[in-house]
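Let's practice the habit of predicting before peeking. Look at the sequence and jot down your guess about where helices and strands might fall. Then scroll down.
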Amino acid sequence: MHVPCSKAWTRVVTLAFLFVGSEVASSEFAKGDPIEEGWGAWEHGLSYFGDFKYPPEFSNFDYANPDAPKGGTLVRSFASSFNHFTPFLAKGVSAPGVSVIGSMTLYDSLLWTSADEVGVFYGNLAERISISDDSTKVRMRLRKETRWHDGVPVTARDIKFSFEHIRDNASLGVKSAYLSLKQVDVVSEREVMFTYHYPVNKNAMMALGKVGMLPEHYWRELDSSKTTTVPPLSSGPYRVGKFELGKFIEFERVPNYWGKDLGIHKGRHNFDKLRFDVYRDATIQREAIRKGLLDVFVETSASQWVTGYNIATREAGLLQLQEHAFKQYVGALSALAFNLTRERYQDVRVREALTLAFDLDWMNSIVHYDVYAKPQSYFHGTFLAATGLPSPDELAILEPFRDQLPERVFTEPPFAESSVAQLSGRAALIRAQTLLAEAGWQMRDGQLVDAAGEPFEIEFLVNTKALERWLLPYLEKLRQLGIAGAIRLLDTAQYLNMRRENRNEAAFGSLAISFPPNQELPAYFASSSGGFANFARLSSPVVDELIEEIMNTRNRQELASACRALDRVLWWQFYFIPVRVIETARMVMWNKFRRPDVIAPYNSGWPDTWWRDEARADRVHQALGLDETRDD
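Done guessing? Here is the structure:
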């Protein structure tokens, strides 16, 4: 998502989300309309690099089985107790199924991503897309067959309403992804036009397809700014079935789903029911999967992955441990950040000292069985990662900011090759002590204090026991530096509220970035994003400019240089401590399912392209003494 240049920054932030919607025309359109002057050809999708693997009206993705059988229930866990169904609200805990990132459930998006291409989205609600020659406008024509579950057609007014709802009610992180969007116009019943404040690239335009669209006619008499426990009208392959707040929710497949015969959907959405049972504690979730109450469990504990499932059902091939690729996202699955609105963390020496004290190598080796890869970039494992010294292209981007950046950005490699990463154990703590002393902190009676005698204390906010395991060894290192650390474990609702209201000092968060990078960059790092996503409360004119540079790129080389420049700045300013990278998801699964023969290189397809095998499921149930009935 493009972020404004420094001169226009104040103006655009002030105008953020000042969408102006107006009905410009009401005429119908027909396939094969002539291309208008100032506009590009109508395409069946958006491609960052310009190429499409699949032609218009393609039958199905190669990695989906169009003949996959439908049926059965998939039971998974949900780690928090949801309390409402209103999409995109910056309050409460919404039910699963709202987001279309990764899997489409309740709501359709304008576009849908391809799992065997990089940076390619195909039309979903949108049948055709055209971009203005100056890259400031995008027109989308909706498919005639689109329908809400009440049979009412999806129209351009629904699209306009959806983005206005995000503008008015979403969290700052979601809003920041659309700051560049100036205006949404209803051209006709089935054509909508998006206008940007300034030229943007296709990657920014793809963000238009990453959120579910909402029915304007349903919400017209309701208040979309408030939570509701009534399942709203939706359009996707599933609708809400039975549910009980705090306990479970079921989604029922819609047999006459309008999009079931589209190439992007053929062979997907194969389960008749998707069920989420609420288990707030991971230990209880593990017991549920072992007993067969869950079909699949994502194991986040390295020790449990290595040692926790050596049981008879696994030896018999009934319980399986599988790793699933989700390479459409890169970066840090988990990172630790200190709240930059607190004065002490505004000193880069303090942030570097805290980074040195976090002995990730020791934790990975001793605590986590060497299961996790060490983060080597904010774009880990891709050609966007910075290595060695800056290239001439990177220097051209960084040079205007030399007086605002540490010299090491220009003279040292980042991450594993850096002088900081070379230090460990006692040497790292000695260097950390020196940096803290330079920043004005002194040791008195075993306690680190500032000039006024105030102690250095840190409260870490967490909402899962798993995060505690990362922090306990860290607290011991901090204690050796004279810093008193404490862990505050909260339920999900309290945790979200404290994060949103800027009442936390240190917290873990995700820095998962789509590949190629998209709307997540401003959400995580831009000054305009002061909400949940920007959990460091980062506000840096340099970072803002570099995000703008990335969002303005037009080819692979420009994108690589701009991302590597940002990579160096984020590392040497120590805004975050990357802890875990996006890698394969480690899943414990009962052997009840089958998948297509072709596996996409960037996404395993789970669960969208998988289906239930009744013979396998019967064997598992017989071994466990289970049947298909459930006591809800």
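How did you do? Residues 281-324+586-632 form one domain.
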